[in-house]
Structures are given as structure tokens and as C-alpha cells.
Amino acid sequence: MNALVDRDDIALKCGIAALQSFLGKDNASALLRPAPLRAGEAKSFFFPLPVDYTGMERRLRISFPANFPRDQLKLHVEPSPWLVWPHAMKSGLCLHGFQERPVTGSPEAVVNDSMFRLGKIVSLSTAGSNKAIRDAEFQNEITSYWSIQHGQSTQNLILLHRPQEASELFALSDPRHALSSWNGPVWLASDVSVLNNHYKRVVGRSSIVRAPLMPAFYVKMLTYPDVRIPDPKHLLPWLTPHLKPGDAKRLQTWFVEHGSLTSRWIVLELPGDAFAPIYCLNLISHDTSTVRGTKFGLRSARRNPVKTSHRPPARVRASELHVLDREAILSRDLSGTAKSLENSRVVCIGVGSLGSPVAMQLARSGVGHLTLIDPETLESANLGRHVLGADDLGYSKAKALRERIRRDLPTIEVAAHATFAEVVMDNRPDVFDKADLVIVTTADWQSEATFWRAKSSGTAWGLLQAWSEPHTHVGHALLAPSGTFDATNLFKENGDFKYKLTEWPKGGIVALPACGESFIPGGSLGMVNIASMVSETALRTLTGNVKDSVWVSSIYRPQDVAELGGEYLGPELPDGVRQSLLEREWPRNKERTE
């Protein structure tokens, strides 16, 4: 214990010496004055600061915590410059911005870093400092300042698309959330058809939104309102000078015509590009400590007609709002690939351990239409390699995956058929007629051969057959683009690939006690590698980067094959290479020499 106390005392002395040294550069260390200690402090000082741009003289309180430098130096400005200086909070200063973290290490490093950052903040607000730079600092974090002042509303809002201009927003509560408090998610859109389409995608059935309320208004800001929020009765005068005149007039009209609603929202798109930040104001008409959330149904306007009211809101809160349109979801992909995939249609035959991650990767990459076909249900033995989880056990793989994609990415059109692909081909030929690419991952030769026979007659859709060899160290994909192709001669009569890269006792297939049941062994990591290869091949095909038939193979740690009782037959990888992707022409039609 004594050793720990001595170490903390040494660290404190080193920190104080570092502070004096830092200030001594400008002969300012003599201005340090002891300050009364507060709880948890080992040593504190006052230090005078330069007069700021408001003419105010302030002082800095520098506190060394008892366990310094494990805890950071504490810096407080008195009187508080909250909403006067950039990066000043109600208590203390925000020294570290986005994705920055406090420096750890020696007492000297902690003190020097904190004081250097303090100097940058002070320089923004001293007398004669540049107002444009100061305003820009406020604007970079303006939503943080507003939300601290407003406090947070509890209702979660989901904007289904960004309107291109100022617009009233219709509302529909998510029907899957039947909360007694009515604080479930609310969908917002400027077009009722968007609500109808979203309802169908997410819920899985059609329903017409016949008389929705318009409790929200979307507006684009030309310039920034003041960082200090006004009293609720002055809300519109605070906003409207920063709007186009026509938008300001529409907002005022909506504000009056829907003033009787208990809860309303104004969605502010701040100045910027297509992905400018959005801030949402929740206008509450009753001045109570708690406000029950609002539920919006298909005919809310008929049941709860609005009345004109000129009364200002009693309170204004910040509401959490998420944009759920396709552009927002895929905005981190700057390659342009997602945009080109918006109208692509892919049919996934088999959504098991290989097909399910492929389907999910295609969905997350921006493919606009997916059809999932698989007759099997999810079993516990599937969980280690499947994207679905325990809550889906016993359910159709195709339908459960459809619901998973709808829940995670509701802007994508997904259909599911819990039957064999041949049945869908016979009963719903339009599914394939509209497809751009058909991906078969069933490892079922009867199904695979059926689609190669169809392909041999010529189809507009491309065909991608993919599979894993036992233990998932090797995987293959055969791609045939639009046109006439036949790969059946690359397989033996039982469906074994003539050009496999591993050999296993009894074919490496593990039989199960049920009639004709078996599985191909392998771990999740190897299957993910193969799924990525298949997804990449599919996406390159859909974007026009692959126009000829190709054979792609994934090889992962081939040196481990022998340890599992198999024999590796493929090319040797260079030293240090643990994984390789090979892309070449289809193999020539000849048997491998045994």
C-alpha cells in the first residue's frame, strides 16, 4: 500500500512540474494559484485566462485527481462558457473530438496533451478571434449542443426516404410493436405509397393506408439557426429565417393546421450535401412531466381529426430519427456498385450453410430483388454455419431468412418458396424469366442438373453453381452468363466434380441415420471464405465485370487437409500464403488421371 501511495505522490509531483513547465514557456506559471480541494482531488489550481470575445474575464480550474494519471486532468472554466465557446460543455470542456481518446501514459504526456488541446479551444474564443472559424466549430457539432438543451424524447422515428423538398410527412406506427405505452417505432414518409410498400415488405402482406395523419414536417435548412435554443413559443421565429420563403410559409401553415396534436415533429435537414445531418424536434402540446407516445394507424385521420390551433408547443424535445431509405443504408459504399444493383434480380436456390450467407451478403451489397428457394427447415446442427439463429429452429429456412432480411434491410424486395426449385420452375416460371442470375448452392445434383439442362437450351439469366468440398478448405463456383452453356460434362453421373482439389475417404460425406440424409463436414470460417468468393463472383457478374464463363476456386490452409485424413490435390501455395482465389476458364472435358 505504501508503495502505491509513493507512486501516486511521485506521479502527482511529475504532473505539477509538467504543468509549470508547459506554462513556463510564456512565463505564465507564476500566475498559478492554489484552489480549494473538492472530493476526489489531490491538487487544484486557478489560472487566469485571456479576455474572451464577449469581454468576459474567466479563469481556469486545473484539478489533478487522486489517482492521476490513470484519471485525466480535469479542466473547468469559471464562469462556464457553455454555448459561448466551442467545445465547452455545461461542466468542463470537451477536449477530445470524434474518434479521439484521451492520451494515456506518463504524467507529462497527460498534462501536455490536455493543455495543448485547451490552448486550441481558448484560441477560438479570445478577444479578436475569428468569428467565422468559431461559428464553423459550433456548426460541426450543433446537433450535440441542441440535444443537450432539448433533452430526449422516447419515441423512435424512422424516415423511409429523404424528401427532395419541404414536405408534410405521413405517419404509420410499426404494426409489429404493440406497446401499451405507444412508444413503438413510427414510420414517416412524404408519400402514402411509400408507407404502403414498406408495410408490405416488412409485414409480408398488403394493407392500404387510407387516412394517415400528418404529424411531421420535413424542411431543408439554408443556413444554421443559433446554437442556443429558444423558448418553445419562439420556435418558428428561430427556424424560418433560415428557410426558403416558400418552405417557411408551408411550415407555418402545417404548424397551425396541426396544432391540436399532442405530439408533432419537425425534421430539419441541415445545410450540406445529399447526406447532410438531420435533427428532429418533438413538439409536445401538454406541459406534463411524461408524455405518452402516439400510435398512428391506417385511418388515424378519420378517428382523430386535427383542429387548427395557434397555441405554441408547451415543450420541445429532441427525437431520435433514423433514415431508412436505400441511399442511406448503402451510403458507406462509395464505389457506385450498390446503385447499379438496385434493379438486379437474383434467385438463390438453397439457403443453407453456403446459400444463406451468400444471400445476406448480396442483400447488404444492394441487390434489389431476392428470391429464396429451399424446402428444408432449420435444425440445431445448422446453427454453427447458418446466418439464422435458435429462434428460427423448426421454421422454413427460406421463409425465416426472408423475415431476417426484411427485418434487417427492409428496403429490399424478398420472396421465399419453401419447396424444391423444380416445383417453382414449373409453377412459377416468371420467377426465373425475370431473374438476372440464378445461384445454386444445394449440393444436390438432381437440382443442379435440372438447371444446367435449362441453361443448355439458352436462358437470359446467368447460372452460378457453387459448393464446398468436405471440411470447407476448398470451394468452387462455376459461372455461366446469359446464353447457352452446359457444365454437366464436368461432373460424374453421381454429381462428383471431376476436377476436385481434395480427396477424402468415402467421399468425405457423413451419413445420417435418416433415409438418404447426410451432410458435408466443415467449419464456419471456411464456409464464410467460400461464401465471400461466391458473393464476389455474383456481384461482378451483375455489374457486368464478368461476361464469360469462369471457374473460381477458394483454397484455405491446404496443409491442414492431411491432418483431417484427406489428400490435397490442388496447386501448392507460395510460402506465407494461407488463402488463395483462383479464377480461370472452365476445365477441359477430360477425366483426371487417378
Give a summary of the structure in a few sentences.
The protein is of the alpha/beta class and 594 residues long. Helices cover 28% and strands 20% of the residues. The strands form 5 sheets. An 8-stranded mixed β-sheet has the order 11-10-9-8-6-7-5-12.
Task: Walk me through the structure.
By secondary structure, the protein is of the alpha/beta class. The chain folds into 3 domains: 139 residues, Ubiquitin Conjugating Enzyme; 176 residues, no CATH class; 248 residues, Rossmann fold (3-Layer(aba) Sandwich). The protein contains 16 helices and 24 strands. The strands form 5 sheets. The protein has an 8-stranded mixed β-sheet. An 8-stranded mixed β-sheet has the order 15-14-13-16-17-18-22-24, with helices on both faces. A 4-stranded antiparallel β-sheet has the order 1-2-3-4, with helices on one face. Strand 16, helix 15 and strand 17 form a beta-alpha-beta unit. The termini are far apart.
